[in-house]
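Students often ask what a holo structure prediction actually looks like on paper. The answer is less mysterious than it sounds. You provide the chain, you provide the ligand, and the output is a string of discrete structure tokens encoding the 3D arrangement of the protein together with adenosine-5'-triphosphate.
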Amino acid sequence: MTRTEPTLSELSPVESFREFRDNGLRLDGSTLGLENIHDYEPGGHHPVEIGHVLNGRFKVINKLGNGGSSNVWLCHDIQQETGQYFAVKILMADNSIEDCPELRVYRLLDRGLGKSEAAANLCLPVARFDIKGPNGRHFAIVYPVLGPQVSSLRCMLGKDDPGRELRQVCFQAVQAMATLHSYGICHGDFRPANVLARVTGLDSLTEDQVTQAVGSPRTTKVVQYPQVNSWPSTAPRDLIRSIDWGSIDAGDAGIAFVSTEACIAHFGESYDYILDKRLGIESDIWALGCTLFEIRMGRPLFVIPHDDPDEHLARMVEILGKFPEPWWSTTWEVRRRWFSDEMEGRSRTRPISLRFPLGGDNKPYSNLNDVPIARPPIPRSIQDALTYTPADNTDPCQISGHRTISIEETALFADLLKKMFRYVPEQRIAPEDILEHPWFRL
Ligand SMILES: Nc1ncnc2c1ncn2[C@@H]1O[C@H](COP(=O)(O)OP(=O)(O)OP(=O)(O)O)[C@@H](O)[C@H]1O
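The corresponding structure tokens follow.
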């Protein structure tokens, strides 16, 4: 039996978060990790197919990623003899406006940051052009090629514990932040997803060799429902899945191209702190602390099951201790959902419940006997957080047999993190002092 057209029940439902209309297109497969097919409409994405040459110069050979407002393509520069590879980020047409967040990165170049040696760890644009297509005019920005988040390197490096390499990656992340701050720029969105490992060594390879290293483009067919005679020029015939760096094994050829060089991306939230004094740069330090923890440990410090800000605060108090006044007694009133005012030891308040999530009615367990006992204790200090095994045992590094860090390193790393996680923003350690910390000299 030949299949011409899938039935509606075989087609994946497509969620639409934007205002674009249902354009009658569906995916013949899972939508997971792909851009929304409804975004291929005037104002939305530019339709790109593998092999397309952008601006007469950048030949698309694979896809690197997609975000809320763009797709990022792995391209071969066919105009230069050296044939370098670049990431070309194409913004949706509606987002391609002069004051869009993506272009804020150019303020870093205006400040002369591109010429600074320390900019080696910042992902800065190397060229820019416009594309006119069926869906409008799109900004296309050319960047160096980056790979996986550095927080996943711990598992990818394939060593028992690649501590030295990971501390070096952390050092580069701090250095990048120190550089930004020294130029009066606050990153504003520092998190593991924006610290990627640089990909090196592709430039001498043919397209076939690159494909061998990172895998062939993985396509999902786009189908029309109901089928009409002509294919709309606004949409591609296939959507492409991004290169999955995580699935490249430590022994595979592709892994050799993923360096342990950290590169900070995404300056869309960055701003000039000279105008508003120091406000915000201390938030960068807090975010940097969370990022260092995740790079070194391969898992987040604060795991918040319900994405609830108060649960987040509760988890912080459990690990870092009580907030200073008046935050504790007055500002954060709902703390009573989690903590009694009884003191436990010298400075710790007693948690009503050590268990997340709360009981069925969203209240703490009033009787400790109600708390399921099979869960290991939740960390009560940074040291605990560094040494404990996640309750659900889903830490991929633990599963693949990585060891926890040494007692000596735990003490030094905890000391550094405590200085970064001071509640009073002005008391947080500055990036240049972080770089001097003995944890980096282990
Ligand atoms: N230079 C690059 N090299 C390799 N991959 C990249 C590069 N820049 C971005 N990516 C990948 O593309 C994905 C989308 O990029 P990005 O988050 O910058 O898009 P965005 O549309 O600006 O996102 P959002 O609007 O949701 O914040 C990233 O998660 C990353 O995986």
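Confidence is low (pLDDT under 50) at residues 1-17, 353-366, 371-376.
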